[in-house]
Amino acid sequence: MELATKELEEKAKAAKAASKKLAFLSTEIKNKALLNIAEALVSKQDEILAANKVDYEQAKTSGMGEAMLDRLMLSASRLEAMSQDVKTVAALPDPVGEIFEMRTLANGLQIGKKRVPLGVIGAIYESRPNVTIDISSLCLKSGNAVILRGGKESINSNMALAGVAQQSCLQAGMPNGAIQLIESTERAVVNHMLKMKGIIDLIIPRGGAGLIKLISENATMAVVTGGVGVCHTYVDKSADLDKATAIAYNAKVQRPTVCNALDCLLVHNQIAKDYLPSTAKEWGKANVEMHCDERAMAILSSIPSLKLVPATEEDWGKEFLSLTAAIKVVDSLDEALEHIAKYGSGHSEAIVTEDYSSAMRFLNEVDAACVYANASTRFTDGSQFGLGAEIGISTQKFHARGPMALKEVTSYKWIIFGSGQVRP
Question: In this predicted structure, what is the pLDDT of residue 399?
Fold first, then answer.
C-alpha cells in the first residue's frame, strides 16, 4: 500500500506542475499532440490489441459478464473509431482563452469572462479502456492535466493506451506529466485519491452504481456523477409505427451493454395491439428477453418463439445492460410521464409521436439530461453529438449535464478593464 500511495502522490504532483504549463499552451501544440495520438492508435494497434487480449482472456476466465466483456474488448475497428474521435477533438475550437459576455457598465468598466482550464482532473473508471483516450484527449485540448485510475480488469490495455498517448504528447512538445496513469490496482489508491483536494480539482467516476456512490460520498473535491442510465422510450398513440419499431430496435439491440440503451418500452394502449407484435418479433430475432406487464403479456403471449417473462416491480427502474427490456402499456401521455418521473435516472428519455403538442410536452416536462422526440436514445454520446468524445455523461445539474466535452471541463474568470475607476 505504501508503494501505491507513493506512486499516486508523485504522479499527482507531476500532473499539478504540468497543469500550470498546460493552461497557457498554444492550440498548435495541443492539436499536434492529439493528431500524434490519433495516428499512434492505428500504427501501434498490434501492441494495443495484444495487451487488450491479455485483459480480455483473464476477465473471461474470472467469470466477467457479457456486458462488461463487451465494454472491455478492443478491436481494430474500435481503435479506428477512437482515432477518428481524437481527430475530431483536434479539429474543434480551443475553448481556453475564449472571452465572452463582454459589456461596458455605466461607470465605463469593461467586464466579461475568460475561459480557463479547471486544472487537474482525476478519472476513476471501470472496464472500458477507450475512456483512457477519450478523457486524455479532451483534457489535453482543454488545458487540463489528467490522472487516470482504471480498473484492474483493463490494466494492461490502459497501460498500452496511456503509453501511446504520453509518448505522442512529448513528441509534440507538451509538458511531461500531462497524462498520468496510476498503475496500482489497490483499492486503497482510490480512497487516497479522493482526499487529494489540494491537487485534484475535479473527480469523474465512470462505472457502475457502486463505484459512483463510493466516490460521490467520499470525495473531498468536486465530483461529476452520472453514467447509470435507466432509459425509456414512450410510443404515443399518434406514433408512426414503422418509425417506432425501428427506433425501439436500435435503442435496445444496437449495443445493449451501454448506459444509453433502452431499458423500458412504454406503449399507449390505443396502438399497443398494432405496435407491440411487430416490435416484439424484431426484438425476438435478436433474442431479447421481454419483461411484460399484464396487458403487454396478453397481446404477445400467442406469438411463438418470444422470450416473455411477467414483469415485477423490480423491472421498473432497472438498468439491464443486456438484451433484456421491460414493457408496459399505459393509458395516456400523463401516465408515461409519471412513470418516467418515478423510475427514470435522469439520463436519456424518448417519445415517438407525430403529434407536435405531445412531443413538446414530453421535451418540456421530462427531467433528464437528454430528451428525444422521434430518435433513438443511443445518440447520447459525445462523439455522436459532434463533441469529439466525452469525459462522461452527467446526470447532475451542476455544473454540467449530459455528455461532457471541452467546455464542460473548463471554468472562467472575470476580467475587468478600467481607466482609473474607483468605487464611490
Answer: 80
pLDDT of residue 63: 94
pTM: 0.87
d(CA 223, CA 217): 10
The Cβ of residue 253 has, within 10 Å, a number of other Cβ atoms equal to 19
Task: Give the pLDDT score at 228.
Answer: 80
6 and 153 share a domain?
A: yes
Looking at residue 219, what is its pLDDT? 95
> Same domain for 258 and 172?
no
State the Cα–Cα distance between residues 353 and 238, nearest whole angstrom.
Answer: 5
CATH number at residue 23: 3.40.605.10
What is residue 4's predicted lDDT score, i.e. its pLDDT?
Answer: 77
| pLDDT bracket for residue 21 (50, 70, 90) | very high
Angle (CA) 91 94 97, round 5°: 170
In which band, very low, low, confident or very high, does the pLDDT at 1 lie, cut at 50, 70 and 90? low
Cβ neighbours for 124, distance < 8 A, ≥ 6 positions apart: 149, 190, 193, 203, 204, 205, 206, 207, 211, 215
> How far is residue 277's CA from residue 128's CA, in Å, rounded to a whole number?
36
Q: What's the CATH number where 313 sits?
A: 3.40.309.10
Cell of 83: 482515432
Range of the domain at 371: 231-379
- Give how far Cα 59 sits from Cα of 113, 149, 151, 153, 158, Å: 48, 18, 11, 6, 14
Structural domains in the chain (count): 2
Say if CB 161 and CB 48 are below 8 A apart: yes
Residues 188 and 132 in one domain: yes
| 394 within 8 A of 401, measured Cβ to Cβ | yes
Confirm if 271 and 295 have CB atoms less than 8 A apart: no
What DSSP string runs through 245-264? HHHHHHHHHSSTTSTTSEEE
| Domain match, 41 and 175 both | yes
CB 211 within 8 Å of CB 302: no
Each residue's pLDDT tens digit, 155-213: 999 999 999 999 999 999 999 999 999 999 888 899 999 999 999 999 999 887 788 88
Which amino acid belongs to residue 256? Answer: P
